[in-house]
Design goal:
The chain is 59% helix and 0% strand. By secondary structure, it is mostly helical. The N and C termini lie far apart (72 Å). It folds into two domains: 50 residues; 36 residues, no CATH class.
Amino acid sequence: MKIQFIIKTDREVKKEAQKTAKQLGLPLSTLINAYLKQFIATKEAHFSVLPRMTHRLEKIVGKVHRDVKKGENLSPIFDDTQEMLDYLHKQ
């Protein structure tokens, strides 16, 4: 039998949690139920904030990754500072 479980939270927390759940393709209640079941089974509570890249940063990192694979747009390895400065002044 399903029951209604009422909790108090900040309006913004609820809004952001619903938004995040929607991005994952799940209703917030499904995530909360899964968390509660895991909490009961393990008797542990884990909290994590995973950093997420912006779309713009993902594109930049993707381009860098492709360049590294192709060996393009990379500076050489320098043995000392003067060698690096000489290289930069020639560019």
